[in-house]
Amino acid sequence: MSNILLEFDKAGAEWVVVAYLSGDARMLQVISEGKSPHVETGHLITRVPHEIILKEHKIVGSQTDPDLIIKLREAIPELMDPDPDWFVPRSMSIRQAGKKSNHGLNYGMRYRRFALENEIPEPEAKIMVEGYNTRAYPGVPLWQKATQQELKTNHRILTNCFGRKVRLMDQWGDDLFNAAYSFKPQSTIGDIVNNALKAAYRNRSPVFLPMDLLTQTHDSATVQYPTSDWDRMAEFCIEFGLGLMSPEIEYNARKFKVGTDLKIGLSWGDMVGVPLVENVKELSDGLQFAWEEVSNRREAV
């Protein structure tokens, strides 16, 4: 018998929370239709068709060298002679542009800082920021304005999706506003993970007793579990991942859940994804298959 790491990660967590807080129709559509937020945002910012974005992602990946990207794009004729209405970033793939925007632009970041943090030219950053806030998700800046008004009305007190309150005391201005925009999404995700870990620690059932809690990293939790009983491990993953880590949240009359991804491995640097499903037998088989892959990797080193 040996032990394995189980990592439960909230999938696109803060972006999903912002979608429900803002009520942006297009963000909610992306979630309800199961679309890739990064591909969809890249499409909305650049107007490049989805199929070309996916094709480019396979070829360019996360490369950031403009000269190398141009060379790699030679395999995609549509991007070498693009439609005049398209915006094709020089310093990253279109999907990567969507990903960077999704991770950075919900909390009031302006284009100069966006350019600095992502090491891209300011003109490109400006197009991406304006595209995100106007053409892609216009509900986000409206939610930001509503948050500012909430600060005024409630004496700087904000309340997250679990009823936890904070009073922000910084000088009135952009720094205060940016902290306000990020508080509800970030604290809501942190509370989900912390509440799940507390409940798991107190759970003395046979499914939870073999578990060792290891880490909480904002939007993820990692535990150690013995490989002696795969069905029991699968039951634990279902109860913890689909139960404790995925509570139903209600905010402004909207009910929603934030999905959870599962990975297993022998170290944090080498994890394999496993579909987190409700069927014990199916999940047990998936865990064993992933374990074999992890073991084979270890033997090959």
Key descriptive features of the protein:
54% helix, single chain, two-stranded antiparallel sheet, alpha+beta, 301 residues, Alpha-Beta Plaits
What's this, in brief?
This protein is α+β, with helices and mostly antiparallel strands and 301 residues long.
The CATH class of the largest domain, by name, is Alpha Beta
Largest sheet: 5 strands, antiparallel
Which fold name corresponds to the CATH topology of the largest domain?
A: Alpha-Beta Plaits
Poorly predicted regions are none
- Please state how the strands of the largest beta sheet are arranged side by side: 4-5-1-8-9
- Name of the CATH architecture of the largest domain: 2-Layer Sandwich
Which range does the strand content fall in?
5-15%
Mean pLDDT: 94
Question: Describe it for me?
Answer:
- By secondary structure, the chain is of the alpha+beta class.
- The chain folds into 2 domains: 1-24 and 139-301, Alpha-Beta Plaits (2-Layer Sandwich); 25-137, no CATH class.
- Helices cover 54% and strands 15% of the residues.
- The chain has a 5-stranded antiparallel beta sheet, with helices on one face.
- Helix 3 (37-46) packs across helix 7, helix 3 crosses helix 9 and helix 8 (111-118) crosses helix 9 (122-136).
- The radius of gyration is 21 Å and the shape is globular.
